[in-house]
């Protein structure tokens, strides 16, 4: 008995001793060489051996598709330049980066058929809400310009097109030197403008102010304003290029009367204005666009310069900054009868054998305005649309836009003489808009070109019945 206990004790001691030696080896002696290895060797190796998933548009365009390459798999880009900002150019950027685990199969999203069929289970597919034709049309419209296009379906908040210009070719981004050339380009081709670039929103803020005023439903909404061409607001002088005379809210909005709009916000007051921006989620980031996004900026409405800051905020030229997505989201809210949603870009994740594993949808952020207010703003958009339609007819454009709503404006850039940012927001078709489109062009002398591009894109999307 004693001999057996002694044998057990000796064996246990030997085991513990051995374990100590092994541990000491890995943790002390071999540690430096281990930490020098790339942190995720397994992940990278697997990513090379497993057939990666595809990224496809809602209409089936493969914008990223796996191809056999030396020692494993690589990606082929379909229409690389139109989709560059969405796909990214390596496994750290764009959707390739965001969905790396899903696309490489690392997330374990495959099913048993895939496990049986292939030695290393393949990655899953990512299906976008983006429509291939709409995206290519948007990218084509922006050629030769700097700016962006964002089109969202009203019914569910799905992004149909999100194009940014200038773009780049992900195929010529294979060495660090090549990436460096594109990354340091002063025209910022890597920037995904719809969600990342902060612009002076200009007259978009007047539309926001009009909605706030209508929503209060009080006397301010029915008041007539007097524009003599200039108005003293505290220490600041607000000027109109012409004296608009006596104007109502619709006149002020559609005829771009700066004096009346700032008088209106002054009558609303900073607290009501700020509460309204909060309800609209106007300054929020684009959380469901998957790609990086910026939050909006607003001057302090309650400091010693609060009154002037509010007037400045309403004109949207000096201190306010919004992404095109934030402006789009405001008009989308009006088209949706007052409900705010976060537009979304990825529709589904599918297994290699085509089974839907995950479905995404737009998040509702609650109601910002009453249905009646939203309807009134849509009526004003329609009246605006008539103005731009007649401008298009003058240009020899004969297509019928069928009661499209539109708003367009231009914001001067104080640093670039005579140049600025042109904005167009359009809705089609009337009376129940199904698409809201925002187009931004940078460094242009006025909004004419933007109107032409924006309205023809809207017309094209409207006909696609997306
Ligand atoms: Zn005026």
What is the third-level CATH name, the topology of one domain? Beta-lactamase
Computed Rg: 28 Å
Shape assignment: elongated
Strand content: 15-25%
For this structure, the quaternary state is single chain
Q: What's the CATH C level of one domain?
A: Alpha Beta
Q: Spatial order of the strands in the main sheet?
A: 3-2-1-4-12-13
Biggest beta-sheet profile:
6 strands, mixed
What is the arithmetic mean of pLDDT?
88
N/C terminus separation: 85 Å
Task: Give the tally of β-strands.
Answer: 17
Model regions low in confidence, pLDDT < 50 over at least 5 residues: 34-38
Number of helices: 19
Query: What ligands are attached or bound here?
Result: zinc ion
CATH architecture of one domain: 3-Layer(aba) Sandwich
Roughly how much helix do the residues carry, as a percent range?
40-55%
Structural class, by secondary structure, is: alpha+beta
CATH H level, superfamily name of one domain: DD-peptidase/beta-lactamase superfamily
Give a quick set of tags describing it.
alpha+beta, Beta-lactamase, five-stranded antiparallel beta sheet, 466 residues, binds zinc ion, 17 strands, 19 helices, six-stranded mixed beta sheet
Short description:
The protein has 466 residues and is α+β, with helices and mostly antiparallel strands.
Textual characterization of the structure:
- This protein has 466 residues and is of the alpha+beta class.
- The chain has a domain at 200-322: 3-Layer(aba) Sandwich (Beta-lactamase).
- The protein has 19 helices and 17 strands.
- The protein has helices at residues 2-29, 31-35, 41-49, 80-87, 94-98, 100-104, 112-117, 132-142, 176-183, 193-196, 204-216, 219-222, 249-254, 258-268, 270-280, 306-315, 324-335, 371-394, 448-464, and strands at residues 55-56, 62-69, 72-77, 125-128, 147-153, 159-165, 225-227, 230-233, 236-239, 245-247, 339-342, 346-350, 356-359, 363-367, 405-412, 420-428, 435-444.
- The protein has a 6-stranded mixed β-sheet, with helices on one face. Strands 6-5-17-16-15 form a 5-stranded antiparallel β-sheet, sandwiched between helices. A two-stranded antiparallel ribbon has the order 7-10.
- Strand 15 (405-412) and strand 16 form a beta hairpin.
- Helix 11 crosses helix 14 (258-268) and helix 14 packs across helix 16.
- Mean pLDDT is 88; it is low at 34-38.
- Bound molecules: zinc ion.
- The site of zinc ion has 7 residues, from helix 14.
């Amino acid at each position: 008995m004693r001999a057996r206990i002694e044998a057990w004790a000796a064996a246990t001691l030997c085991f513990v001793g051995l374990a100590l030696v092994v541990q000491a080896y890995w943790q002390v002696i071999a540690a430096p060489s281990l930490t020098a290895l790339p942190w995720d060797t397994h992940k990278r190796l697997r990513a090379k051996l497993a057939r990666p998933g595809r990224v496809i548009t809602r209409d089936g365009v493969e914008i990223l598709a796996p191809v056999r390459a030396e020692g494993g798999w690589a990606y082929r880009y379909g229409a690389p330049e139109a989709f560059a900002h969405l796909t990214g150019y390596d496994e750290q950027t764009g959707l390739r980066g965001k969905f790396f685990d899903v696309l490489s199969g690392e997330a374990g999203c495959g099913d048993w058929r895939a496990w049986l069929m292939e030695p290393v289970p393949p990655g899953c597919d990512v299906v976008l809400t983006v429509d291939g034709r709409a995206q290519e049309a948007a990218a084509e419209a922006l050629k030769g310009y700097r700016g962006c296009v964002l089109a969202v379906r009203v019914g569910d908040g799905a992004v149909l097109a999100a194009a940014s210009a200038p773009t780049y070719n992900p195929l010529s981004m294979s060495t660090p030197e090549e990436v460096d050339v594109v990354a340091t380009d002063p025209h910022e081709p890597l920037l995904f403008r719809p969600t990342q670039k902060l612009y002076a929103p200009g007259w978009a803020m007047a539309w926001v102010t009009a909605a706030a005023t209508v929503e209060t439903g009080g006397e301010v909404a029915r008041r007539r304003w007097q524009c003599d061409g200039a108005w003293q607001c505290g220490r600041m002088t607000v000027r109109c290029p012409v004296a608009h005379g006596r104007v109502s809210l619709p006149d002020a909005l559609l005829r771009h009367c700066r004096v009346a709009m700032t008088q209106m916000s002054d009558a609303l007051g900073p607290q009501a204005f700020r509460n309204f921006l909060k309800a609209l989620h106007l300054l929020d980031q684009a959380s469901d666009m998957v790609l990086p996004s910026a939050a909006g900026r607003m001057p302090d409405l309650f400091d010693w310069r609060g009154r002037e800051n509010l007037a400045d905020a309403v004109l949207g030229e000096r201190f306010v900054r919004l992404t095109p997505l934030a402006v789009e989201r405001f008009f989308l809210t009006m088209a949706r009868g007052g409900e705010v949603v976060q537009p979304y870009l990825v529709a589904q994740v599918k297994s290699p054998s085509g089974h839907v594993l995950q479905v995404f949808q737009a998040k509702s952020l609650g109601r910002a305005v009453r249905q009646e207010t939203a309807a009134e703003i849509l009526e004003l958009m329609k009246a605006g649309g008539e103005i731009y339609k007649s401008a298009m007819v003058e240009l020899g454009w004969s297509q019928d836009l069928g009661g499209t709503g539109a708003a367009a404006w231009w914001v001067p850039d104080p640093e670039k003489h005579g140049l600025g940012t042109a904005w167009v927001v359009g809705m089609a078709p009337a009376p129940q808009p199904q698409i809201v489109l925002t187009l931004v062009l940078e460094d242009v002398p006025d909004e004419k070109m933007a109107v032409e591009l924006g309205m023809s894109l809207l017309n094209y999307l409207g006909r696609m019945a997306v």
